[in-house]
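Objective 1b. Sequence-to-structure analysis of Fe2OG dioxygenase domain-containing protein.
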Amino acid sequence: MPSLLYKSLTDYNSPLFRTQFLNVSAASPPSPPPPNWNLSCRITSQSMSCSSETPLPTLRTVTIPYYELKDKDADLSLKIEEGFGPNGLGILSITDVPEFPSLRRNLLCLSSRLAALPEDVKKELEDPQSRYNFGWSHGKEQLESGKPDLLKGSFYANPLIDVPTNDTYLIQRYPSYCGANIWPLAALPELEVAFKALGKLIFDVGLMVAYHCDQYVSRGMKMRKDEGLEQILLRSRCHKGRLLYYFPAQLSNHEENGDSMSSWCGWHTDHGSLTGLTCAMFKRNDVEISCPDSAAGLYIRTRSGEIVKATFGENEIAYQIGETTEILSQGYLCATPHGVRAPKGKEASGVDRSTFALFMQPDWDEKLNFLFNCRDEKLNFSEDVYIHKELIPSNDSLTFGEYSEMLLDKYYHKKT
């Protein structure tokens, strides 16, 4: 869910950048980072061009092996802080998850088949009432330019619950969460099985990540068990998976849009709790290939305002922090703006891209007043933290469903 558009790149020769990322002394160095902060050691020497032809750093995500993650007695606080803390990138990845490589491939290979279905079949998979947050969506979202996004198609579904509720009032009040899944049972029956299998795995691993996040946060603030991220996600019926397919583009399209840091996905901060991501799959003429442009991929805007490329392996599950978790944790876990840059050049012509994201979120009736009634001075948020403060009431309680609908009203069209 997009939340804000961000400014262009900053000066990578600045003292701030050189000190924080390249570990080079500057005339006026900032406050020293925590001892465990070692972003600089994850920077690769790879140079990537941008619109200003200034090389951008590439950072490897913090990684946690699955065998460590599933151990509830393991102390992962240093890695949680390094990935999700105030000086982190807001992302980390889990390695060696059993069955993940095959489940990822099974689902991503179906995205092109879904996009190639006849238009009348895809029309039956659309759900305007949910503002296209269930089923098939193409050209319904807007790019940063305000134009319809025709570059990609999406398929949305809750991988855990087909029918979250039968309450008519709730379905009308929160259609983007309370609606029912729409599966192409006749045209592509494999999709439901593959979507649910991958979504359930990413959710289960995400709960383990949430457990260790709670252990880390509880060291710095008092928190009841039912306020923890793990419990909030366990009782939620709002989780939403999104299978994305980026259509093959001609060379002219890549040359026109390729210089933008967000040419494939606009700058945004996820507004939910925790987002699970797969590495993208690239194909040309249905044959899997490597990404044709080393500059393409996921870009993150750091807390100091710099933009870096974040990478993780194709057999790893990456997790990103959302706005709600940042507020819940009083800033111990931090969300970061991010966007996706498309490949450009001759080698990128005719290449499609598939990926999957699971948005793990609070329930629609989860009360957020105990989160939002904490004022900014208590949360120690800097001016550069992009939380939707203008939507937060001063006294009244707010549910996650109400908060989400307000965001949809702001960034999409209002319900009729």
